[in-house]
Design brief:
The complex is a heterodimer of chains A (474) and B (220).
Chain A: H1 8-55, E1 58-60, E2 68-70, E3 86-91, E4 94-98, E5 114-121, E6 124-135, E7 149-157, H2 159-205, H3 219-223, H4 228-274, H5 280-314, E8 324-326, H6 327-344, E9 348-353, E10 358-360, H7 363-379, E11 386-394, E12 397-403, H8 426-432, H9 438-448, E13 452-458, E14 462-470
Parallel strand pairs in A: 9-11
Antiparallel strand pairs in A: 1-2, 3-4, 3-7, 5-6, 6-7, 8-10, 11-12, 12-14, 13-14
Chain B: E1 2-6, H1 10-24, E2 27-31, H2 34-43, E3 48-52, H3 60-69, E4 76-80, H4 85-93, E5 98-101, H5 106-120, E6 127-130, E7 133-136, E8 141-144, E9 147-149, H6 153-164, H7 172-179, H8 188-202, E10 209-212, E11 216-219
Parallel strand pairs in B: 1-2, 1-3, 3-4, 4-5
Antiparallel strand pairs in B: 6-7, 7-8, 8-9, 10-11
Helix pairs in contact in B: 1-5, 2-3, 6-8
The chains are: A alpha+beta (474), B alpha/beta (220).
């Protein structure tokens, strides 16, 4: 089996993986963002505490000069010796102290009481806090009514914080990927299981053939809601296919069968002609007979093709574009074609048209219907009788009645007259020389155009064929 | 020999009849429906019946069953357009001796009919031998002591019929019934004309055909 161009399984798995990846990315991003915010908030609090503790080391000199000193020796040793904290304390614009390597370019334009800044000092990220108007804690030596305040800038490196954030991100990412792998495996298993009924259905469908039209949907496929419309559609399709297949096969069998008789006649005519040497007039007569047989064969073929086409139309298998035609006109055509037969039988043909009936049909088909009905009627009419053809219109349908005054058809034979190969009365059929196919063709053609044909007969009084055809609506 | 053809297609029946008359010198009658066919098959002593299956009024298969029910042993060759095994089996079971599917070869029909008649008369070979006379039924030639003898169609008919029943007394009526079809006027003295013709042509000292006054003829 070829790899399918588009695989539902692949598509589903891809969807699962992509959505899982998106989820993992979202998780990582949210986690990192949250961790960073929390750590920064904690760092800011810590930063303020450290700044305040450094500010607390500023006190008045004990000599009563009210000058301020910074007890540098009391500053706790830095936690990170590689990237130590920085600080600077000022009283007004007077700098009291600053840690070593205080970058000179570190300035705050900000005039608020408290401000945080993220900055980079010689390539290392720092977080800095700027505090204004910090009161001096040392009250013992403070001059009376002193309102001295300090400005403190304190910066601490955020390298550790970033590392923590990265670690948290990595942790979440790894955990997400593990979960992703697990869910993909689960999805794979689920999809495989979910698609199993489809596989079973396909295996069952593969069993369908011209010999076996039965599609038995496997029980698991029947239980799947999504597959039900598919199985139902397949069943209806198979039914339709089987019907038209059977019809084709039946037609083929019938056609072959019906062609055999005229073919056998033609063959026997030629063979008996060749049986011994003959005179020229004998050959001539024989060839004329063969031609006669050939014409019969040809006529039968023509009828059968028309019938096949009409039957396909009933199944709507052939598209047709038909124009509205005058039904009475086709009757007239049929009558003019049968004039000589009628004359030879001394039968009168009488057409009555009550109203203009227009149908959507192939005029040649309708003509063939009338010819078949009329031929029957003429052949079964006694000499001097009249065959009536009436064309009339009811609402929505046109009616054509062909009525003869012949011997009539026994009631038990009426339902069978449209069967191919049926010859109701032997005394008639021998004379007709027909194939018992004419009425079958007439019926099939009428039905192909959505019409009906109804026979009525009274023994000794005649037969009446009523054809109704839907008229053109517009 | 006299054969009945039951076939509703007139043209077909006529072609078959013509072939049997010209190709086998048989007398042939035609029935064009089942009822007529059954009546004729029962009322006339045919040597074979060629029966079409698709017949008006009485189906060929029914005709066959009815014919066999009346203990008629006439060989029946069925002409059928159907090929299905079931119908062939049904045919043979109903008493058909052979069948041919349409469209068939007239030559084959002729050969089968001849064989059927031969078997019906207990003659396995197409060449009938009585004394030193050889009658080849396949090409209708007659030889006596190795010498070809030319006969008219009617003389051949008489000889062939008698040769199928060597040593048996065949009445004039039987000959009339088996050598003429329905439409012929049956004059008994016509037979005598053919018999004397045959005697003259076959004469080489020993007379083959004997006349048993009031009883008929015998070939031996």
């Amino acid at each position: 089996m070829n790899t399918p161009a588009k695989s539902i399984k692949r598509h589903l798995i891809l969807t699962v993986v992509l959505s899982q990846l998106l989820l993992a990315a979202g998780l990582v991003f949210t986690g990192v963002f949250y961790t960073q915010r929390r750590l920064e908030a904690a760092l800011d609090t810590d930063l303020e505490a450290r700044a305040m503790s450094v500010a607390a080391l500023v006190r008045y000199a004990e000599d009563g000069s009210h000058s301020l000193v910074f007890e540098k020796s009391l500053v706790p040793p830095p936690l990170d010796t590689v990237h130590p904290d920085f600080y600077q304390i000022q009283k007004g614009s007077l700098e009291l102290t600053r840690s070593g390597h205080w970058p000179s370019n570190l300035t705050f334009n900000n005039t608020g009481l408290k401000a945080y800044r993220s900055l980079t000092i010689s390539g290392i990220p720092y977080r800095a806090l700027f505090l204004r108007q910090i009161p001096i804690l040392d009250r013992e030596e403070a001059p009376p009514s002193s309102a001295d305040t300090l400005t403190v800038v304190y910066a601490t490196p955020t390298v550790a914080l970033h590392n923590q954030v990265l670690a948290a991100g990595a942790y979440i990412a790894v955990a997400s990927l593990i979960w992703l792998g697990l869910t993909v495996l689960l999805a794979l298993w689920g999809i495989r299981r979910g698609l199993l009924p489809l596989k079973h259905l396909a295996a069952e469908a593969a069993q369908v053939s011209a010999q076996n039209w039965e599609l038995r949907a496997p029980p698991d496929a029947e239980q799947v809601a999504e597959l039900r419309p598919l199985t139902e559609a397949m069943e209806t399709m198979l039914n339709r296919l089987r019907q038209s297949f059977m019809q084709q096969r039946e037609f083929l069998a019938n056609a072959a069968h019906e062609l055999k008789t005229p073919a056998a006649i033609l063959k026997s005519t030629l063979q008996s002609l060749l049986q011994k040497p003959r005179t020229a007039p004998e050959y001539e007569a024989g060839l004329a007979q063969a031609l006669d047989d050939m014409e019969r064969l040809e006529k039968l073929l023509h009828w059968m093709l028309r019938l096949a086409r009409a039957e396909q139309w009933t199944q709507a298998a052939l598209p047709r574009e038909l124009e509205g035609i005058d039904v009475a006109g086709t009757c007239e055509e049929a009558i003019s074609g049968l004039r000589s037969l009628a004359r030879s039988r001394k039968v009168e043909l009488h057409l009555t048209t009550n109203s203009n009936v227009v149908c959507r049909a192939d005029p040649e088909d309708l003509e063939l219907v009338w010819v078949n009905l009329l031929e029957n009627a003429i052949r079964y009419s006694p000499p001097g009788a009249t065959v009536e053809i009436q064309v009339s219109r009811d609402n929505g349908s046109g009616t054509v009645v062909v009525e003869d005054h012949g011997p009539g058809i026994p009631e038990k034979d009426l339902p069978h007259i449209f069967e191919r190969f049926r010859r109701a009365d032997p005394s008639r059929t021998r004379e007709t020389g027909g194939f018992g196919l004419g009425l079958a063709i007439a019926k099939a053609l009428v039905e192909a155009y959505g019409g009906t044909i109804t026979p009525e007969s009274t023994l000794g009084r005649g037969t009446r064929m009523t054809v109704t055809l839907p008229t053109q609506q517009n | 020999m006299r054969v009945l053809v039951v076939e509703d297609e007139i043209r077909m029946a006529e072609n078959i009849a013509r072939s049997l008359r010209e190709g086998a010198s048989y007398a042939v009658d035609i029935a064009t429906d089942g009822v007529e066919g059954l009546y004729m098959a029962q009322s006339e002593p045919y040597d074979a019946v060629l029966l079409d299956l698709m017949l008006p009024r009485l189906d060929g298969l029914e005709l066959l069953k009815k014919l066999r029910n009346t203990k008629q042993h006439t060989p029946v060759l069925v002409l059928t357009a159907r090929e299905e095994k079931e119908s062939v089996v049904a045919l043979l079971n109903a008493g058909a001796d052979d069948y041919l599917t349409k469209p068939f070869d007239l030559g084959e029909l002729l050969a089968r009919t001849k064989a059927l008649i031969r078997r019906g008369k207990g003659q396995p070979s197409p060449v009938l031998t009585v004394g030193d006379v050889e009658i080849n039924t396949s090409n209708r030639t007659v030889r006596r002591a190795g010498k070809n003898i030319s006969l008219t169609a009617m003389e051949y008919r008489v000889l062939e019929y008698l040769a199928h029943r060597p040593g048996a007394i065949v009445s004039k009526e039987e000959l009339l019934e088996h050598l003429y079809d329905y439409n012929w006027e049956k004059f008994s003295n016509v037979i005598e004309v053919y018999i004397s013709g045959l005697r003259r042509k076959l004469n080489n000292g020993r007379q083959l055909i004997q006349t048993l006054r009031g009883q008929g003829y015998m070939l031996q």
